[in-house]
Amino acid sequence: MKTPLIEFKNVRKSFGDKTVLDNVNVKIYENEITTIIGKSGTGKSVFLKHIIGLLKPDEGQILFKGKPIRDMRKSEWEEYRSGIAYLFQNNALLDSMTVFDNVALPLRQTTNLSKKEIEQRVLKRIDDLELGEAVLRYPSELSGGMQKRVALARALVADPKIVLFDEPTTGQDPIRKNMILSMITHYRRRFGFTAILISHDIPDVFFISDRIVILWEGSVGFE
Length: 223
Description:
Layout: E1 6-15, E2 18-28, E3 33-37, H1 44-52, E4 59-64, E5 67-68, H2 74-82, E6 84-87, H3 99-110, H4 115-128, H5 144-156, E7 162-166, H6 174-191, E8 194-199, E9 211-216, E10 219-222
Parallel strand pairs: 3-8, 3-9, 6-7, 7-8
Antiparallel strand pairs: 1-2, 1-4, 4-5, 9-10
Helix pairs in contact: 3-4, 3-5, 4-5
């Protein structure tokens, strides 16, 4: 059987007296869409933050391709971390920046690419997500669907291996929910990244996910 891309082994995380993740065991496989579902307060966002390294488990371990991330050398950790993109629930676009500058931000902050190389990559992603007409516009001038595509273009501009989606359809009407989920599946197939979603939109996510994990009171209730 193939090695999981990411694996949680007996992960436990508490904040004060409250245990948020309690002996969590989850396997996430490459080139799949894995969705973590559960009601508010069940630890979905805490789960994502462990993948990206914003939180560390109190007990247990998280493995990447079979290796505990806590045992990684600095260069290995930086390579792992640079391969992960995060799509925020509210898009987190900067209103003072154009679409081009929003998409370029990760490359400007985390790479040593030349101005010309950054421009080429950004325009390619903007074109891929059919945003060419909006390149010099500001987020406030765009529809909600276009804003979501800009956020996805920014997440994909550095060619990540893993994209984390934090409740991408929260607060959207049914038509827009379906549009966003369809967009995720379309671009996942096109660009070949591994997608990890957290959501409470049932049954919508069942139609796009390869694997569903239900968090219930801090533990995996069903997979």
